[in-house]
Amino acid sequence: MESAEIRSRWLRFFESGSRTGLTHTVVPSASLILNDPNLLLVNAGMVPFKPYFLGEMAPPYSRATSVQKCVRTLDIDEVGKTTRHASFFQMCGNFSFGIISKKALSRWRGSF
Fold first, then answer.
1. What's the confidence (pLDDT) of residue 24?
2. Of all residues in the chain, what percent carry a pLDDT higher than 70?
3. Over the stretch 36-61, which tens digit does the pLDDT of each residue have?
4. Closest residue by Cα to residue 69 from 50, 53, 52, 93
5. 66-94 burial string, b = 16+ CB within 10 Å, else e?
6. How many helices (H) and strands (E) does the chain have?
7. Can you say whether the dihedral through the CA atoms of 55, 58, 64, 65 is positive or negative?
8. What torsion, rounded to 10 degrees, do the Cα atoms 9, 69, 107, 21 define?
9. Strand, coil or helix: what is 75?
């Protein structure tokens, strides 16, 4: 399976609400450079949603899914020395800005 197919299946699964009925809004990848004084580059999939988690902004949706472009910086000196150190990757994520019950979450287990 190609990585493009994995990304596509991920987004479709959460957008459709498969097995849970909890649909997610598909959010496009944000820029690698955000207006955040604490980060030089986006290093995790949740970074574009940070203002919602911190309560600085009201989220425009209750649930979201994305495939966020990220840059690895923690061990940048190791990039290129091994196959497991890369500088760019895409992180699949699903996020809730409200409460999701444990019962609903348990329906996702083993769904991927």
1. 94
2. 85
3. 999 888 999 999 999 999 999 999 99
4. 93
5. bbbbbbeeeeeeeeeeeeeeeeeeebbbb
6. 3, 3
7. negative
8. -70
9. coil
Retrieve residue 70's tokens: 């990220």
Domain boundaries, the chain: 3-104
Quote the pTM value: 0.79
- Helix extents (H) in 17-98: 50-53
Q: What pLDDT sits at residue 98? A: 76
For the domain made up of 3-104, give the CATH fold: BirA Bifunctional Protein; domain 2 (3.30.930)
* CA dist., res. 23 & res. 109, Å (int): 16
Distance CA 85, CA 82 (A): 6
Q: How far apart are CA 45 and CA 105, in angstroms?
A: 20
Q: Which residues contact 76 (CB under 8 A, 6 or more apart)?
A: 87
